[in-house]
Amino acid sequence: MNSWISDEADAFEAAAEPLSARAAARPARYLDGLNPEQRAAVETLDGPVLVLSGAGTGKTKALTTRVAHLLNIGRARPNEILCVTFTNRAAREMRHRVGALVGGVVEGMPWLGTFHSLSVRILRRHAELVGLKSNFTILDTDDQLRLLRQLIQAANIDEKRWPPRLLAGLIDGWKNRALTPERVPSSEASAFDHRGSELYAQYQERLRTLNACDFGDLLLHVVGIFQNHPDVLARYQSWFRYILVDEYQDTNVAQYLWLRLLAAGHRNIAVVGDDDQSIYGWRGAEVENILRFEKDFPGARVIRLEQNYRSTPHILAAASGVIAANSQRLGKTLWTDLPAGEKVRLIGHWDGEEEARWIGEEIEAYARGTRGLDPVSPDGVAILVRATHQMRAFEDRFLTIGLPYRVVGGPRFYERQEIRDAMAYFRAAVSPDDDLAFERIVNVPKRGIGDKAAQEINRAARENGVGLIEGARLLAAAGGLPARARGQLGALVSDFDRWHEMARAGADHVALAEMILEESGYVGMWQAEKSPDAQGRLENLKELVKALNEFENLQGFLEHVSLVMDNEQDDAAPKVTIMTLHAAKGLEFPCVFLPGWEDGLFPSQRSMDESGVKGLEEERRLAYVGITRARRYCTISFAANRRVYNQWQSALPSRFIDELPPAHVEVLTPPGLYGGGYGAAAPAPASAEPPGTLMNSAARADVYNSPGWRRMQARSGARPVSQPREARDMVIDASAAPSYGVGARVFHQKFGHGTVTAVEGDKLTIDFDKAGQKNVVARFVTADADVPF
Ligand code: ATP
Ligand code: MG
User: Fold this and answer.
1) Can you give the pLDDT at residue 767?
2) Which atom of ligand 1 is nearest to the CA of 64?
3) Residue 324 C-alpha to ligand 1 middle, in angstroms?
4) Which residue range is the domain that position 492 belongs to?
5) Active site residue 160
């Protein structure tokens, strides 16, 4: 169980200074720069206010100024304002900005925070009303899963078919909708083998006995207290004289009820949001909350902000073009009077590694002041990805070239749990003496080797003066452990023997790594977990295997990782930010890179499979959020091929690319084979025919001759575009897998010319003249004679 969340200074103590003394304390300079609509949002203090408008129109600014205004004119003391932000970071930022606006440090503001942090504070004061003590603990996900597993086992339910994570997701979903066990609708009674709501009730009971709650409970309990104890609610209603909420479009039902109950008295509630930026539907957010605000609070003042202060016209037009394809939206007008600036740039790459390399070079070019532009420090640059596994290529590349970066909202790639586990397997396979590595994974996945068995292994090793694997071998042979654990331990030791022997004999290290992850049951363990989280971990593991391709052997790779992890970054150095699109909400950067715009990756196949058109529209809103984070420069990119495990897969460019309005986008020629090298991107060559779509014009760039691109062209029925002869001849038919014999001379778009040295099915080992030995799939090479130069 994790730490206490301590209460800070008494949030209800009135400030010593009487309210009136603050009144009109300082001239309202902070109102000067606001436009009339923003001023209305700041100065309409009484009654409900809804600011519903597009990205970068100054909603957060208006909200911050409103807090400053309330304080400055003495309408409320700092601790009488309830201000809800989406993240703790946003809360810190807002506190800082309010301070700047009122010209001093804002003491207090204890009620400025996220729904969760504010709920903890309320719940500690009234814990007894829901059967808890005020020092309750907050469970983290691991604790939660452990508890659920116990309940599932006690109920004699097959844990493999009905894993704890599935139940956790179900319960979270109910809590997001403010449903206590008895309120779970009968239509959902069949959930989790007809035992869902029963297990939910047992889980809540267990939590109470443990004096604990999970994250969802924080809100659920507070809503319950407000609903069942009118006296408590009345006290909060009168204490919070003003309520303000940022990012209102992403509230879930529980949060919505929480707010509606608190605001029901004086109705001084101001919310700001943008239906086009609702991106947390998968976590229970209901965009309807913002659309029904006027119904909930009749007479609300609705304010629309239309001037965007953040982005150049090209960026704004590109974002508007994409979001226009959504059907479920209110639609808004946005304009800006900023200078036109650069168009949004679009570039396709041969593969993901090349994409990372190119972006690294571009960031360095921006820092120097590229193309006659003012320099942009790496601090002003963000790389926004759809999936965390995309971060790996950038991290590796930036570590190699010494470009400082920070990963926001999660550990760095090589620090992730699943990556550390996998690396521990590799380490113990390469060096059987690596006790730390073996210890980490001996019971991952579960092999019935608990703490006691682990101690036994340690003892056997110590007594015989050998390493842990040897200790385990002795113990498994000697008996002493329970039969199941003994059998599994013996099997693990002989697995390690085999893997070690293969590594020593120089087996293909990528295939070996895949084999280790499969045979150890590690991949299977995550496959059995049916949660989105597990899916992400599996993707990270694939990404890890992919990274191995860049190295000669496992040893080399392990050395690389320990070196890069040891590479302490200079804290003061300006850093590029790498984060997910989801985490970037509300933020802005002068320069934004949006990599990986490929169908399946973005829009994510999983969202489309699970939620159909609704999922696709949420993905499109994510694209809108991504583009609108950029103030001056925005570059979108995709790769024609991604390596998944050891296989090349060709990808289709994202359908969102074709929704970008061509007039606002510049298509760059990718570097490489025919282009001018990295950083020398040039516009695509002009054609006699005007491009019908961006995809058409992009297709003139040679890299777009990838199989995926060609298939997409065929599928969309787009007319073939005229291309240079050599480029046309380079088109490779993805469906045909020609056969080559040992000794054949072949050509590969990335690695150049080479000689086939081994053939195994459709996999070739090729000794490339320049790139050295590589394994490639036959359909990605052409016979040398076919190459026209
Ligand atoms: P998002 O929808 O992305 O959350 P937002 O509507 O909250 O955006 P803000 O972040 O408040 O927009 O503002 C965007 C940028 O515009 C900020 O840099 C902000 O300082 C600036 N800005 C907002 N209003 C004005 C104004 N009246 N004059 C000058 N700059 C402004
Ligand atoms: Mg904002």
Assistant:
1) 86
2) 11
3) 22
4) 421-559
5) no
